[in-house]
Amino acid sequence: MENIDHVVHIGELIAVSKVFQLNPFQMITLLENDAMEVFENKEAFLVKYGNKETYDELEDWCELNNGKIFTKTK
C-alpha cells in the first residue's frame, strides 16, 4: 500500500495494533507488504470478500466505529 498516511490516521493504527496484538511498526510493515488491507467502509470490504459468516482467507479483521475495516491475511 502506498501513501499509508493518506489512508490511516495514527490513532486508528494504534487502536487496531492493540486488537491484532502488534506494534504500530509491525502494522505499517504489514500494510506496506500488502499483508494487511484497509477498507474505507463495509461496502468496499463486502465487494472484495462478500457477506459470509466466516472469512477463511483472513487471519483476522477489525471494524472501527468510523466504518473503516482492517484485515490481516493468512
Topology of this structure?
Layout: H1 4-7, H2 10-19, H3 24-32, E1 36-39, H4 42-49, E2 58-63, E3 69-73
Antiparallel strand pairs: 1-3, 2-3
Task: Tell me about this structure.
By secondary structure, the chain is α+β, with helices and mostly antiparallel strands. It has one domain. It contains 4 helices and 3 strands. It has helices at 4-7, 10-19, 24-32, 42-49; strands at 36-39, 58-63, 69-73. It has a 3-stranded antiparallel β-sheet.
Short recap of the structure:
The chain is an alpha+beta fold and 74 residues long.
Q: What order do the helices and strands follow?
A: HHHEHEE
Ends distance? 17 Å
Instruction: Give, in spatial order, the strands making up the sheet with the most strands.
Output: 1-3-2
Number of helices: 4
Strand tally: 3
Report the principal-axis shape.
globular
Find the structural class using helix and strand composition. Answer: alpha+beta
Number of domains: 1
What about the largest sheet?
A: 3 strands, antiparallel
Nearest-angstrom radius of gyration? 12 Å
Mean pLDDT: 91
Features of the shown structure:
single chain, 74 residues, alpha+beta, 3-stranded antiparallel β-sheet, 4 helices, 42% helix, globular
